[in-house]
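Help!! Second protein's tokens look totally different from the first
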Amino acid sequence: MHIKYGEGSTEESLRSKDVFGHYFYPTILVLLKTRDRGAIEYYRNASPDMDELRKNIKIALDIAESIEKS
């Protein structure tokens, strides 16, 4: 999930800060969907390096696959 600020959308920005608890733009969130707990946050960072983001997405996908199999 990529949260970014859009011009003229202050109300939406405040609502997203309340829902996701982020403080900076852009903020990247990687969530895992589970059967019993719903979506859980795996990774959060403001303006991460793309190599770091790719690494964390791959790890999150590996975790999601192992959760799905169990």
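Here's the second one for comparison:
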Amino acid sequence: MEQLHIGGIEMGHPPSIDDDLKKMIDKGVPVYAVREDAEERGISPGDTVPEVQWIPRSDVARLFIEAKRIFAW
């Protein structure tokens, strides 16, 4: 497998986003995705980690108000 290079620098540990998300979910961290944003990028819920909670764009502000912490990818 060829290594990932950015700006001529080899990235020794490329991200494994699906595994990272699963680890967070297994630790009890809720993970949300905005349905419209995903659809605009050609991503459907079936293409993602099953435990991701899909919300409409109109719920983002409410989620930010209710959340204790927000991690963005």
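Reply: Different proteins will give different token patterns, so don't panic. The first helix runs from residue 17 to 26.
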